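User: quick one, sequence for these tokens?
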């Protein structure tokens, strides 16, 4: 699969692995997937960002940190900050969904948790 991505890259681009820990829990995967997708689209859409800093630095942003780099004594607080960040993003997405057609079961916003009301 990696070879297929590498072959599909335009000239001057390369596929690299970014090792950064942003998720501080075991259940907000979809929030972080959505965050990653939004950051990637923002990066490629803004020509001023391209070439000024790496995507890895842009991905983490100014309000977050790579949890691997946080000293152990500060990790709990940093993890809480990341969980609050993910919760705010989830709340924003849930608020934007049309309530007449979609409901969310439980407190997780996962594509599998979204159910069309006609199926209830």
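Assistant:
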């Amino acid at each position: 699969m990696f070879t297929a991505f590498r072959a599909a890259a335009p000239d001057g681009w390369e596929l690299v692995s970014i090792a950064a820990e942003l998720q501080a829990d075991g259940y907000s995967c979809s929030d972080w997937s959505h965050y990653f997708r939004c950051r990637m689209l923002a990066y490629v859409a803004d020509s001023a960002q391209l070439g000024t800093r790496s995507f890895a630095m842009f991905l983490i942003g100014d309000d977050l940190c790579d949890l691997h780099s946080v000293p152990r004594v500060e990790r709990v607080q940093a993890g809480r900050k990341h969980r609050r960040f993910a919760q705010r993003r989830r709340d924003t997405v849930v608020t934007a969904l049309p309530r007449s057609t979609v409901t969310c079961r439980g407190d997780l916003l996962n594509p599998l948790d979204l159910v069309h009301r006609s199926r209830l």
